[in-house]
Amino acid sequence: MNNVVLVGRLTKDPELRYIPGSGTAVATFSIAVDREFANKEGKREADFLNIEVWNKPAENCANYLSKGSLVGIQGSIRVDSYETQNGEKRTATKIRASRVQFLDTKNRSNNSNKIDGFETSFEPAGIDPNGFQALDDDDVPF
């Protein structure tokens, strides 16, 4: 199992690029995730993690996130291997995001479902909560 869930703030604006040939969007950025405990001086340290997002979510990240934005990330750890110009083998660890949740509400108006211009919805799509009938325990088929 390779599953990661993180909450942190972007350390810089996302960088968006498109894969030549396929045109697939890829956004990369890093986030700072506070550690649970403070160090000896009483300060909380942070881990800095590289995030990679693909397809339409990559474009959304590039359009609606910026340095300092608070995000929730769900994804998996990826380790890439490469060789430097000097022939040295190196590895780089990153998080491949399968889901990015925009958590900032700083630009949210009082009666709006938009955060930083991105439409949000907290109701499951296609479900009318008023469309359910009350059931009596005697009506349950099991």
From TrEMBL:
GO terms for biological process: DNA replication. Residues 106-142 are annotated as: Disordered. Keywords: DNA-binding. One of its GO terms (molecular function) is single-stranded DNA binding. It comes from the Bacteria. The keyword DNA-binding applies. The keyword Cell membrane does not apply. NCBIfam families: ssb (TIGR00621). Homotetramer. This is Single-stranded DNA-binding protein. It comes from Alkalithermobacter paradoxus.
